[in-house]
Amino acid sequence: MAIIEVDKVRKTYAGRHVVDGVSFSVEEGEIFGILGPNGAGKTTTVECVEGLRIPDAGTIKVAGLDPVADHDRVTRLLGAQLQESELQAKLTVREALELYASFYPAPVDWRPLAARLGLDEKLTTRFAKLSGGQKQRLFIALALIGDPKVVVLDELTTGLDPRARRDTWKLIEEIRDGGVTVLLVTHFMEEAQRLCDRIAVIDRGKVVALDTPAGLIRQATGSTVISFVPSRALTGPDLARLTALPGVASVTPPDREGALTVHGTDETVTPFVSLLAGLGVTARRLRITETSLDEAFLDLTGQDA
Ligand SMILES: Nc1ncnc2c1ncn2[C@@H]1O[C@H](COP(=O)(O)OP(=O)(O)OP(=O)(O)O)[C@@H](O)[C@H]1O
């Protein structure tokens, strides 16, 4: 069942459609990623879902409610960690948790929540003295304190070291496993690939692809990558036949070690083997792999994340 439904949403600033007809729905219990380059419209989109911005066109429903017209009820259902959140420097972790708990009619007990997030030994520490990772964990705790059905996490791991980022990923999975739907904004491929059940790729205000991470990779042209060192140099006509094989998107010239790379599809592999056999060429150091989500993203958006 869809818990968030975004339908043809548009937001315009100074005549520019920064969100331009975005539609997607998020199923209950999934981690849904919004992935896109800087300025693609990700934050604007999720802030419309949170009812913090009002779309110029289109509709949004969170558990069947309109985030603007039913703002109070949506706020109780939806926990948000905002991008670049800040708290007052002198507020302690305990004070922040108590303060945020007071905003909700039925908050969870913050003590076990703090313990789960590894904050129980930091309760008397002031916000300004927390490390980046501890601040992020506090923001996750604050997003969960109202016992939400959905939590929105925007660029949660930006600025964290690889260890803290991995710890945060584990936490996000635990949140999902606890039955909370997660809407995750990110521009980290590894994060999206590791965590998300499905991903909407947003580019210049539009959804350019929406699929599972594996599905996005399959959608990218040249998603099957064959690399090999031919036992003899391939001639121009040989290369032309290689390029003409079914599904081939590109053939990269030999690297320093003489390895050629063919970007194709699953349908490329068998004809590739037959072609080499027909040419009497052996493929040394043959590797057949899938392209990374990184490369799929480049292909889908035509730019780097
Ligand atoms: N209040 C505003 N007034 C004018 N322009 C805005 C406003 N908010 C956002 N924009 C513009 O809309 C575009 C999309 O911004 P948004 O923050 O949604 O992108 P994003 O995908 O979240 O980017 P990032 O990854 O850099 O956070 C940007 O070009 C931004 O400058």
Automatic annotation (TrEMBL):
<dbReference type="InterPro" id="IPR017871">
    <property type="entry name" value="ABC_transporter-like_CS"/>
</dbReference>
<keyword id="KW-0046">Antibiotic resistance</keyword>
<dbReference type="InterPro" id="IPR027417">
    <property type="entry name" value="P-loop_NTPase"/>
</dbReference>
<keyword id="KW-0067">ATP-binding</keyword>
<dbReference type="InterPro" id="IPR003593">
    <property type="entry name" value="AAA+_ATPase"/>
</dbReference>
<feature type="domain" description="ABC transporter">
    <location>
        <begin position="4"/>
        <end position="229"/>
    </location>
</feature>
<dbReference type="GO" id="GO:0046677">
    <property type="term" value="P:response to antibiotic"/>
</dbReference>
<keyword id="KW-0547">Nucleotide-binding</keyword>
<keyword id="KW-0472">Membrane</keyword>
<keyword id="KW-1003">Cell membrane</keyword>
<dbReference type="GO" id="GO:0005524">
    <property type="term" value="F:ATP binding"/>
</dbReference>
<dbReference type="Pfam" id="PF00005">
    <property type="entry name" value="ABC_tran"/>
</dbReference>
<dbReference type="GO" id="GO:0008559">
    <property type="term" value="F:ABC-type xenobiotic transporter activity"/>
</dbReference>
<protein>
    <recommendedName>
        <fullName>ABC-type xenobiotic transporter</fullName>
        <ecNumber>7.6.2.2</ecNumber>
    </recommendedName>
</protein>
<keyword id="KW-1278">Translocase</keyword>
<dbReference type="GO" id="GO:0016887">
    <property type="term" value="F:ATP hydrolysis activity"/>
</dbReference>
<dbReference type="GO" id="GO:0005886">
    <property type="term" value="C:plasma membrane"/>
</dbReference>
<dbReference type="InterPro" id="IPR003439">
    <property type="entry name" value="ABC_transporter-like_ATP-bd"/>
</dbReference>
<comment type="similarity">
    <text>Belongs to the ABC transporter superfamily. Drug exporter-1 (DrugE1) (TC 3.A.1.105) family.</text>
</comment>
<keyword id="KW-0813">Transport</keyword>
<dbReference type="InterPro" id="IPR050763">
    <property type="entry name" value="ABC_transporter_ATP-binding"/>
</dbReference>
